[in-house]
Specification:
Layout: H1 3-22, H2 28-39, H3 52-82, E1 86-88, E2 97-99
Antiparallel strand pairs: 1-2
Length: 109
């Protein structure tokens, strides 16, 4: 297993455990300090040989993946409630969902 995947899995397990046991969220700052502490253990001291940049990005990827999952779930729920003709609004900076309507073409005069 690669070092980045190892850090990602450990951070995800830590976040999951904290949520299910204490309903506590762990943010980037906390995962960053966890990474530092993991590097100091004899079990994971090989992480010191790897650049810290990809390891840090491994911990930020979790938050990105969680947000993507929430967005996918929200879109799926919107389709279930509103029907299949719902799609993201491309004109909104928020990416909010809107119902699309088929417009009739007007005949030229």
């Amino acid at each position: 297993m690669g070092c980045v995947r190892l850090v990602y899995n450990k951070a995800l397990a830590t976040k999951t455990k904290a949520w299910y046991e204490k309903q506590e969220r762990i943010d980037y700052r906390q995962t960053s300090s966890l990474l530092t502490s993991w590097k100091k253990t004899s079990e994971l001291d090989f992480l010191n040989e790897v650049s810290c940049v990809p390891l840090q990005r491994g911990t930020t990827g979790i938050d990105r993946d969680i947000n993507a999952g929430k967005n996918i779930l929200a879109a799926g729920l919107a389709v279930a409630v509103c029907g299949a003709d719902i799609r993201p609004d491309r004109h909104s900076s928020q990416g909010q969902l809107r119902k699309t309507r088929k417009r009739k073409k007007q005949k030229p005069k």
